[in-house]
Amino acid sequence: MAAFAEVAVSLPMDRTFHYSVPQNLSETISVGKRVFVPFLNRAIVGYVVGLCDEADVKNVKAIISVIDREPVLTEEMLKLTRWVKDNYFCSWGEAIAAVIPAGIKKGKEAIGSRLKSADYENEKFPQSTPHDLVEEQSRALKSVIESVDKHEHKTYLLHGITSSGKTEVYLQAIDHVLKSGGQAIMLVPEISLTPQTIERFSSRFGDHVAVIHSRLTAAKKFLEWKRIKDGKANIVVGARSAIFAPVKKLGVVIIDEEHETSYKQDDVPRYHARDVAEERARLNNCPLILGSATPSLESYYKAKAGVYRMIKLTKRIDERLLPKVKIVDMRMELASRRRIEVFSKVLLDAVANTLTAGKQAMIFLNRRGFSTFVNCKKCGFVVKCKRCDTVLVYHFETKKLICHYCNYTTNAPDICPSCKSSYIKYLGLGTEKVESEMSHSFPHAKIARMDSDTTAKRGSHDRILGDFKTGKANLLVGTQMIAKGHDFPLVTLVGVVSADVSLNIPDFRASERTFNLLTQVGGRAGRGEDGGEVVIQTDTPGHYAILAAAKHDYDKFYSEEIKSRKELLYPPFINLVKVTVRARNDQFAAQTAMELQEAIKLADPEMLIAGPSPAPILRMRGYYRYNIMLKHKDRLAMCALLKKVLNSFRKPHGILIAVDVDPVAM
Length: 666
Description:
Number of domains: 4
Radius of gyration: 26 Å
Strand content: 15-25%
Number of strands: 27
Strand order of the largest sheet: 8-9-7-10-11-6-12
CATH superfamily of the largest domain: P-loop containing nucleotide triphosphate hydrolases
CATH architecture of the largest domain: 3-Layer(aba) Sandwich
Number of helices: 18
Structural class: alpha/beta
CATH topology of the largest domain: Rossmann fold
């Protein structure tokens, strides 16, 4: 047996370590197993990534013990995590740690044995049968099946308008994969979409479905992971981390709503599930389907360039018409009504007509809370967070001011803390205020609200959506959680309270996000027999993102947006890396960021560098933040260069540096 093991550890160190294999462990050690190893006077969990006869240093320490009976990592998973390490600026051990269920990361072999299987098995749903496909769906399915049967890796962009039957194509593609002995991974962007997706998949495939998302307890997540690993579940449905599910015969990967930003991980390793899915499909010689009514610009650009294969679904199921869209100019509303109103007369009339007809309406605003800021009308003082450079949001239910970035909470003042006057006003608009105003206007309406405040408790997603689906509520107010994927046949009206919320964010993707949200939220209307209508309230009715969304015209939006991306050299024409320097002291953070920028410039004078500049929110959780933006055609080259620079850069004590490859937020 090999004398030494090459071990990766989950620490930010860009290297592996050699340990000797004691005689008593030589029979049990193998690549892919977890081991306890001595590291700086303590025992930590390591991952065996290789076995060899020679070590790279003298005086090698010995492995303490082997944790697993069977390897937890396959050869494929080791290749995939190595790819994540190279592409997303993290260590191999950190990439591997993202694959292992949280409950067993500290070295346990199993958890959750006290859970009875009935506690975590999926709910039983009535059996459903495959639907007859229309011609466009059949063509889409045929292409995917060909790739499955030939075992070839191909990426398909399934660009289908809302309610065009993308899910049925996914279901029948998976059915074909299962019949040919394969397994499938299906990613959905939001936890709020998972219940509906589980219902569709479980009613079609029964116990073959395993579910992985962040709302599961550690024990439930481990049991689902084990079911997949043991081959007891052949279909994995879940949020972004499900892309690492331990399936052994992967036959197809599907990403629904592929444009969604929630597919990007916020902390190390900061991977994008769409790119990881592409690499995983390549390693398994199987097709990847990216589905969306509003594809990301990057994916659409690749499809137009022939890198991906484009498949279009241009008609809604049963030839249902797309909803009619009315754009309401709120500046005209102000001129005619002489005061700022939350709702236009057009929207109020539309809600009244909808409720009278016994139908349902959804009211969308991408901002939670009651008032978005509290200020003094006498001296202009605005109540801000002590730890972040942001205003505190007033929440009526708790009568508290809350920071939506660090969760700092304080009581709402009656008098101004600055000038001691009582001219305190609650301004701005959040979902809580919209709900309150709606209940004033329609006292008999049964209103439900869905945002991250009302869905904080486990099971609350399912309860709110269940109440709306069964008609216990006829008016649903919410943030982007209600905008996508849901299918409610009785919804004939969607109202967008302020389309400008996402348009005014300092981010090159602001127009794309606005277009996507408006198109997706508009797509919730008219999915049943009755037609639908959408009312969009805005202060910028002439903006191309709003006009294109109103006409459901993706190509029009794409042609406008791609021009500015090319001109300003942003993705898809370039890769971005955001380096954030943080410190408790503002000047210290700014100075270090400047020194780091100079070190990068010195290492590669050709590198396009912007900044350092203050982050859009300069102070967050007590840290001042400065961003350096790097632009380059080659992502791997940028990561390699940064690793070299940061290895030799003398980082002062108290400075934190984070690297985000292909950031989705500035």
